[in-house]
Structure formats: C-alpha cells, structure tokens
Design goal:
globular
C-alpha cells in the first residue's frame, strides 16, 4: 500500500484542502490574521458581515488601510444589514445585548462616512428579502482567502465559529460561500448616506 490509511487521514486531499484554520469563536481569530489578509489583498476586499463593526476596533489602522487599498486600485465593498429593517429588529430581540445590532451597523456607517467619498469603496444594505440569509452568515473575502462565520442561534457574531478558507479550485467551499455573498450583493440596496 503506497498511502496507508493513517497517512491519508492526515493529508488533506479534496475540497477540505481549502480549510486553512477553524476557530471555535470569531473572537479567537487573532487580529494579525485579519490584518495580514487585508494587507495582502490587491484586487477585492469584500466585507459581507451583517454589522462589520468589530473591524474598526479589532484591525489596527483599519481606516488608513482602507484608504491605501482604494488608492492602489483595490475594490472595497461593505454589505450591511439595514439598521432599520425588520430582521435587524428581530435579531436585537433574540440577542438581547446592550450593543444592539442597529447600533453596530451605525458604527460601521459612521466610520465609513468619516473616510469621505472614495472611488472604489461601495456600501450596500442587503435586500429585505435577503436579510434573514445575511444575518445568519458573514463572509469576509480577501482575493482568494475568506473568513466565514455561520452565526449560531442566539449568539452574537464574536461567539460564533469562524472558518478560514483559501480557494484551491472551482466549486469548493470558498466558491460556495463567495457566491452566496455575491448573490446578496447583487440584490443589495445602495447606501445613499
């Protein structure tokens, strides 16, 4: 036998090769991972979390980094939940925390507004019919890497697990999550602020 089962069990061979790392909590993913992925991205940064607020506090020099990325020709997109939407209100009741979902979205909107108008920076709200699909899954894409958080029942985002994926081929987990986020983006509503 050329490849004994014990060796096969240790070597990633299929679509599981795309799984770089998993974390039991999003908050367990070091800020250095976020910073490196953002810093290494040259073409497309896509933040499709429902609130995205933690990026402004967890990623060092995040506003300056976004400005540099946009200036270098990188496309930067934020897909947010509607702070006044029905799904947002329902999620606030479920989470029942002081820092509400709508407040977290507004923190992101305020920080984006502080960046000023930047060519290459786009913001949309998920469409009302898509909001329930958006609030339950956050996808953050950095060219060919992604951090994905499937939100668990009543937990806030930082208490849900996180998967670090790297694209290895067509139709793998990276593509499936990426296509989900792109579909939500395609039906999203432009932020007029």
């Amino acid at each position: 036998m050329i490849w004994p089962q014990v060796v096969k069990d240790r070597i990633k061979s299929g679509h599981d090769r795309e799984l770089v790392h998993s974390y039991p909590y999003r908050s367990a993913c070091p800020s250095t991972v976020w910073s490196e992925l953002i810093g290494d991205t040259g073409g497309d940064l896509f933040f499709a979390g429902y609130t995205n607020y933690f990026l402004w506090t967890q990623v060092p020099a995040f506003p300056e980094t976004l400005r540099r990325k946009v200036a270098s020709g990188c496309r930067v997109r934020f897909l947010l939940g509607d702070p006044d939407g029905e799904v947002t209100r329902r999620r606030e009741t479920i989470e029942d925390v002081a820092l509400t979902v709508s407040t977290r979205i507004r923190i992101t909107l305020e920080n984006l507004e502080r960046l000023g108008p930047l060519e290459g920076l786009e913001t949309r709200f998920s469409a009302p019919d898509d909001a329930i699909n958006h609030v339950s899954l956050s996808v953050f894409r950095f060219d060919h890497d992604a951090l994905v958080t499937p939100h668990l029942a009543r937990l806030v985002g930082h208490d849900s697990p996180l998967l670090h994926l790297r694209r290895q081929g067509e139709s793998g987990m990276f593509d499936r999550f990426s296509e989900h986020a792109e579909e939500l983006w395609s039906r999203g509503v432009a932020n007029q602020a």
